[in-house]
Amino acid sequence: MPSLPVRTAACLAALLLARPAGGADPAPPQKAEMAGYLLVPHERVDKQYNAGFSMYVAAWPLLKNYPGQEFQSGLFGTWMFSQYDGPKPEKAYSDIEGGLGWWRDTRFATETPKFIMGGVALNFVEWANGPGAGKGRDWKNPKGHYAIAQLSPWVLWPPDGLNLKQGTSGELFGYGYLPLPLTAAKKTTAGKDVPTGDQCWTLFLNAGNFKGPVTFFVPYFWSKPTTERTDLAGMFLDTRPSEPNKAIQMETQHVPAFIAKDAKGDTYARVAPTQFPARPDGDAPLIHRVTAYRKAALWDGVQAWFDGGKAVSGAIDPKAAAVHTFKGGGGATWRIYPPNTERDKRVPLAWGSFATPTALDETTYGYRWAKEVVAKDGSRVTLPEYYRLEKDKKDKERWVVASAKDVPAETGLTKVEFRQGRTAKPQPYVTPDDAASSWKKPGPAAGPFEAKLGDGSVVTYSWYRFADQPALLNADLTADEREALQKRVELLHKNWTKDREYLPPPTAGKLADLDPAVLVTPPKGLDIGYVPIVTRQGMKE
After folding, report:
1. SS in 3 state form for 375-420?
2. Which of 13, 98, 452, 481 could be disulfide-bonded to 477 (CB atoms 3.0-4.6 Å)?
3. CA-CA distance, 310 to 304, in Å (whole number)?
């Protein structure tokens, strides 16, 4: 997605998203959906800035009421691919494409978005959304479940996604990925004669109540598929630099809608109330300071430190960075259509009639809203709900904005209700309990403990010695390699404290907070070299 990965886990049975408020209608509205992309153009930077990125994106409740698990949408984000010296390899999709949003397999969803990491191994054979979270929930056949290691001793990562503070509404969430030299490069992988690189792509956050590195992709996640596809050895993010000029988009896969015809045969649509951030004094920033880095921004100093040099603070050097600029412009491919409509028959919205893409300043992007059709209420604007199907001058169909009073009563659209649709009792996430598993052998040093999150779920977690966490026991590392990694992380824990800046700070907007419940303090004696690992997430029993 962006920014988001397309997750193909089977959907739960759809909840009833709307119902007629009155009596039976001889031609009831037909269930439909709105989906598509919002496209954000930005200026390119030099290809030498190929060691990761950071950005600030607005976090807000896209829908007024969370409608159930058919709903899937990201907020603004990006896709980070490998950079190649020559042509890209064919049929070799792999990237980091996570971000803020809601997904069909989100079990403890609220109106407030969550954050996932969204790493994709070769052609979606595996994906990884966070520690203990991957493709499906089958621990006997894990697909990305062990791909991400916990690095921070201060942040819990629930398998359902990293929670933001409930009620977040337009604040900026800062995040980015930069490589750290935590592990050594290897000439063999899982006993095969293919290499694994030394780049541990690390997630850095800048939130109102937490700053710093949180988690990282183990290099084996990227190289593992090359044990079968040896022709692709050395082609993924464990080894390759990152492409600095990435797409920025907002990917929406399903927003509930309804379509109906009036007595004359004209077609109308209604979409669930869809919101964007607003500010009393002007237009709200949606994307801010999209930045690409050279290895001199962080990697070089950390590598010298690990080689015996002086400690570095972890602050990412803005002198080794390039900030993408905005000039306005952009497009939208949002469409309204009945389920299973062929792609080329999905009719677009006349998005430009109520939203004008705008560069709020050189490094900040947002929209200017048409006041006559967009309702503003405090910190949010609500987009038009009603549309009429018309043809433009080129005889192409478009959904144009209609007011509620102009929608004929016989369509029934003004009487449908978009209801909140939470799962009554979501299934818990449970990690293996086998005494011989990597979760139990050698097992945790302290716990279990519990934390109740803002989404209503309860997470159970324990403290593991960093090198003994399950992800690293399944990362194709020898005992000696894990011990070398342990020593490096202990240096980070001692020196990279949570009370300093890491990512270059924003110059506009206010920072969003993480859910306070995901912030923890290590037990006495476990503050250096230990990390919290979530072993269960579910409703309180």
Report:
1. EEECCEEECCCEEEEEECCCCCEEEEEECHHHCCHHHCHHHEEECC
2. 481
3. 8
Work out the widest C-alpha separation in the chain, in whole angstroms: 80
Are residues 408 and 516 in contact, defined by beta-carbon separation less than 8 angstroms? Answer: no
HSE, CB side, 13 Å, CA atoms: give it for residue 343.
3
Q: Could you identify the residue written with the tokens 């430190």?
A: 305
pLDDT tens track for 257-295: 999 999 999 999 999 999 999 988 778 999 999 999 999
Distance CA 430, CA 447 (A): 16
| Full DSSP string of 24-55 | --SSPPEEEEEEEEEE-------TT--S-EEE
- Could you give the count of Cα atoms lying within 13 Å of 41 in the half-sphere of its Cβ? 8
Place of tokens 């194709």: 476
CA 116 – CA 108 distance, rounded (Å): 14
Q: Is the dihedral of CA 192, 195, 197, 201 positive or negative?
A: negative
Give pLDDT tens digits for 307-350.
Answer: 999 999 999 999 999 999 999 999 999 999 999 999 999 999 99
Calpha distance 194→190 (Å, rounded): 9
Three-state SS at 466:
helix
Q: Evaluate the omega torsion of the peptide bond into residue 3 and state whether it is cis, within 30 degrees of 0.
A: yes
Secondary structure of 298-361 in HEC code, one letter for each residue = CHHHHHHHHCCCCCCCCCCCHHHEEECCCCCCCEECCEEECCCCCHHHCEEECHHHCEEEEEEE
Q: Is 22:261 a contact under the CB 8 Å cutoff?
A: no
Q: Kind of pairing, strands 72-78 and 248-261?
A: antiparallel
**The residue count for the chain:** 541
The DSSP call for residue 95 is E
Sorted by sequence, the CB contacts under 8 Å of residue 425 that are 6+ apart come out as 539
Non-local (6+) Cβ contacts of 141 within 8 A are none
